[in-house]
Amino acid sequence: MLITDAAKLKKYFSPHRVWQGIPGIARTKGGRTFISFYSGNVKETYGNFAAVLQSDSDTNFSEPVVVAEKQGKFRCFDPVLWIDPLDRLWFIWNVMPGEEVFAAICDNPDADELQWGEEFYIGRGIMMNKPVVLTSGEWLFPIAYWRHDIAPELRKPALDFNYPAGSYAYKTTDNGKNFIKLGYADIRDRSFDEHMITELNNGVLMMLVRTVYGIAVSYSYDRGKNWSRGEDSKLGGPCSRFFIYRLRSGRLLLINHVNFKGRNNLTALLSEDDGKTFPYSLLLDERNQVSYPDAIECDDGYIYIVYDRERGGFKSSLQEAYADAREILTAKITEQDIINGSLTTDGSFLKNVVCKLDRLADEEADPYQEKPLGDSEFAEQLLQDKEGNIIGQVFERYSVNCANACHVDAKKLDTLIRRFKESDSKDAELLTEIIRTIRSAPEQKTASTPIIEKIKSYIEQNLAEEFSVADLAEHMQISLYYLTHLFKSVTGATIIEYRNELRLTKAKLLLIETTDSIGEIAQKTGFCSAAYFAEVFARSEKISPSEYRNYHKK
User: Fold this and answer.
1) Is residue 224 within 8 Å of 207, Cβ to Cβ?
2) pLDDT beyond 60 at 400
């Protein structure tokens, strides 16, 4: 699985990559920098591989010096780089199906010729961020077992519905020889988890987790064995990976999107009060589609940051991929730069491109030019998958959006889908007709108003009103089945779950900020009665509305 032979590595070089992203960074005491990312195929799917570049300067990086790949119907993805307290370089990657975290260690990453140890298994799940070293000496590795509805088509046949999904902590007390699985946080509305763990000054462990609304927080008071119920950290974010790290000065460094409209305005922030506030900030990159930061602080006080820009994945042609920047970038800053809000330290820089993809070396081997399946062939292929979400896969292949939804007969489509779902034996002709109907929408690559934002806006404006998902689909003039599929795939929550969460959030604000009665708040937030509101609130928050109000008023 681990490839280091120079001749074999050439096929992973930049002239053979269509896309790249999700980077990591590590820097040795000798000043060598390593950057990881993953690529392979034309999107995040089977055939992905994880790669590592190196540089003895701040700017000139090599082609891959080591690659993790597993042949067959597998993917190696979301790599992590880390220099441990013994100055060893860890290369960590994930394998799917199986949800397995593997690693290899280089004992001397400053050597002229890198020597990697045998790859080994860490634990079950997906690891996407650096470990944390506790003051007590343990190392905690943030490993998640994703919600069972995330990417099931890539996780079968190893998807284990009996294994609790959550943001776990794995502990090692012997420098990585053995790992113990601790507790996990079960965060509502989390999305791919991508969690990070930080030890606060009072010894409490703080876990931050990516969610559909930004970043949630959970705490452990017993060194990771148990975690509190997750709540909104109020740090915000566009449902994307962030980075948090304890600097040598004692300050907390947070890298997140600020004042964002999507994945833009990537910003470095500093906290001097253990994460309660972040008064200092430095804008790293204001452009769109800059994401997935990772960072490390060096002995000389410089902070090295890596992130990606316009990855180029999930396109339908080479020309579309070529239109993206497909860059891996770095920044080099100091705490003083963040405090000043601008680069004031000699040697600091922003937006340094370390790896940018160009055209493929062999465009005749176009990975997009596979023979397309006809409607009936596609239907037959889908029917072979007895357990998968067949209709969902059709929508994934032929997307419908705000601009072209009006060209689809929504009532006809919903009738066909309802007949297909209710039939005992799946009908290939009926599925073919569904595919043909969905495909009838003219191709439209962009939409002026994202449909998800329109749905969210409608829910917010009608929060106190009772409406069904069917009512919403009719209002949007879009297929009921496509609406539910799209909203869940983008946000990780159903429309009703999202509405209920907004109602509870608004109710909490009214409990704290007003003197309205419980009945008045229930009416303003769309609950049919004060009793039903109290029941839902207590079930969600483990406390009554009145107790919640009294606690927060104090």
Assistant:
1) no
2) no
Q: Extract the runs of DSSP E, i.e. beta strands, from 231-310.
A: 231-232, 243-246, 252-257, 266-271, 280-285, 290-297, 303-309
Write down the residue that tokens 């079950």 correspond to: 124
Helix, coil or strand: residue 53:
strand
DSSP 59-92: S---S-SEEE---SS-EEEEEEEEE-TTSPEEEE
- Report the 10 Å Cβ neighbour count for 407: 11
* Residue 273 token pair: 């009060």
Closest CA to 247 of 316, 209, 198, 315: 198
Q: What is the pLDDT of residues 31-72, one digit of tens each?
A: 999 999 999 999 999 999 999 999 999 889 999 999 999 988
- What tokens appear for 112 in the block? 């002229």
**173/424 Cα distance (integer angstroms):** 54
pTM of the model: 0.72
Residue 541 to residues 232, 261, 296, 507, 545, Cα–Cα distance (Å): 13, 31, 37, 12, 9
In whole angstroms, how far apart are CA 340 and each of 264, 447, 497, 552? 21, 39, 42, 35
Cβ partners under 8 Å of residue 46, min gap 6: 73, 74, 75, 154
For 78, 153, 378, the CA distances from 73, given in Å and listed in that order, are 17, 12, 20
Nearest to 451, CA basis, from 416, 413, 389, 408: 408
Count of CB atoms within 10 A of residue 336's CB? 14
CB within 8 A of 17, min separation 6: which ones? 39, 40, 357
d(CA 481, CA 469) in angstroms, rounded, equals 10
